[in-house]
Design goal:
The complex is a heterodimer. Chain A is mainly alpha-helical. Chain A has 11 helices and 2 strands. A 5-stranded antiparallel sheet of chain B has the order 1-2-3-4-5. Chain B has 8 helices and 5 strands. The radius of gyration of chain B is 21 Å and the shape is globular. Classes of the chains: A mainly alpha, B alpha+beta. At the A-B interface, α10 and α11 of A face α4, β4, β5 and α7 of B.
Chain lengths: 247, 203
């Protein structure tokens, strides 16, 4: 009965359809002043701690080990993906992620290896922010979170809910849960190391690192959520130019 | 009463006529231009792959990449778009200086990342007509990386078939560089010559 009710509820939510995405280059950033302060703080943290740590660890720890830690952390994200896939009524993705989790947790030695990707079964990454989008919640305002970086008001809610309802939390207890957290931090450092050129360029070489990170984040996030082909490209040969940054 | 309805009805019929004309547009012609755009991106990918894996010295790589951009990209229109409204007040000399500086900036900025693409493969996965241009979708397969999508927007608006925008996982070259050039202009108090000088030194 409860299940039937929940299913009806979900079906009702999904029937509302996903929220409309803002057009190409459209930015809603009413708290730009505060956001810029948080961005400056994040850059300072990166310069003083995250970047040196990731470079140090990246140089000291051999690539296969770093890859293993990253894989282990990624694998622990899979149950969370499945839960969100189900809430979005994307059963195909839920099955793919479940299958992936099963393969990597067993054949992949508890998630250290990633044989699933080897057979073309890549993660269908998702989060509760996307679930909210599927249920019809609009993007909201651009937000920069301390340490975590760019987000939106909708995705910030999503982030908090994801942390609270992560299935791994209910099945893994200390001290194993500490390993999971450590692997998560290790995985993040590894990502910072692997994409060091991209992130350095963005944070330290852009004419306006804040605005560059903002347009990059929003464009990529909307692409993830779109789920279909984009049509609203600007055609410089026929469209009249409108300045999307005009206030 | 009838008089009031007639214009609307006429407009409606006109619209229908327009739609019919659109539907009757030679589909063969569209198929031809879609195929031509596909062929252009195919040739571009072959040249790009050869350049990425050729093991050139940095300066040689940048100049070869500029040659490739000249052949396949409509740089004047990309430069014009990223400069936005400021293009209108720029003199002819400033415009041509900007195009040159912008081409070399793009070659350095993207060329410096080619190392990450060594050994990767690119394949065309789709092409379709959107309004007056063609979107060619490619998938990049890099080592230790989930496959990702790269879109080339192709048009013959310049008189020759060339790409005028590039979209990597939703991140649009035109939008991103418009933001960057705008920031450089702001930093220089709107002075176009100073912005161009900055662009020459930017990586």
């Amino acid at each position: 009965m409860k299940t039937a009710l929940a299913a009806t509820f979900l079906a009702g939510l999904a029937a509302c359809g996903p929220a409309t995405l803002p057009g190409e280059g459209v930015i809603n950033d009413p708290s730009e002043v505060q956001n810029r302060e948080v961005h400056a703080f994040n850059v300072a943290v990166d310069r003083a701690i995250v970047r040196p740590l990731s470079v140090g660890a990246g140089n000291a720890v051999p690539e296969p080990v770093r890859q293993g830690i990253g894989n282990f952390a990624d694998n622990l994200d899979q149950p969370r993906y499945v839960l969100n896939n189900l809430l979005q009524l994307r059963i195909d993705d839920a099955l793919a992620n479940t299958f992936r989790f099963a393969i990597n947790s067993t054949v992949g030695l508890g998630g250290l290896l990633d044989p699933a990707s080897g057979i073309g079964l890549h993660a269908e990454a998702t989060d509760f922010g996307e679930t909210l989008h599927v249920w019809g919640a609009p993007e909201g305002a651009y937000v920069v979170l301390p340490v975590l970086g760019p987000s939106t008001s909708r995705d910030t809610v999503g982030f908090v809910v994801d942390r609270a309802m992560n299935p791994v939390r209910f099945f893994v207890e200390p001290p194993e849960s500490y390993y999971a957290t450590a692997a998560g931090i290790g995985g993040a450092l590894n990502t910072r190391y692997r994409f060091s050129d991209t992130i350095d360029e963005l944070y330290y070489e852009s004419a306006d690192g804040y605005a560059a990170a903002r347009i990059l984040y929003l464009s990529n996030r909307r692409f993830e959520l779109r789920g279909e082909a984009q049509d609203d490209y600007f055609d410089p040969y026929t469209d009249t130019y409108e300045d999307p940054y005009a206030q | 009463m009838l008089n009031k309805i007639t214009p609307t009805r006429r407009a409606f019929l006109g619209l229908m006529g327009g739609a019919a004309a659109l539907a009757a547009m030679p589909t063969q012609l569209i198929a031809q231009s879609v195929n031509a755009a596909r062929a252009l991106v195919d040739a571009l990918l072959v040249d790009l792959y050869a350049l990425i894996n050729a093991g050139r010295s940095t300066s040689q790589l940048y100049s070869d990449f500029e040659t490739l951009l000249n052949r396949y990209a409509d740089l004047p229109i990309i430069a014009q778009t990223v400069m936005g409204v400021d293009w209108r007040r720029a003199s002819n000399a400033q415009r041509s200086d900007f195009i040159t500086a912008f081409r070399s900036y793009i070659a350095r900025k993207y060329g410096s990342r080619f190392q990450e693409l060594i050994g990767g493969t690119f394949e065309i996965t789709g092409a379709r007509q959107i309004r007056n241009f063609i979107e060619v979708t490619t998938t990049a397969n890099l080592r230790n990386e989930a496959p990702f999508e790269v879109i080339w927007l192709v048009s013959s608006g310049s008189g020759q078939l060339k790409f005028f925008n590039l979209v990597i996982e939703g991140i649009n070259l035109q939008t991103t560089e418009r933001q960057e050039i705008g920031a450089m202009l702001d930093r220089n108090g709107g002075n176009i010559d100073a912005m161009i000088a900055d662009l020459r030194n930017a990586s």
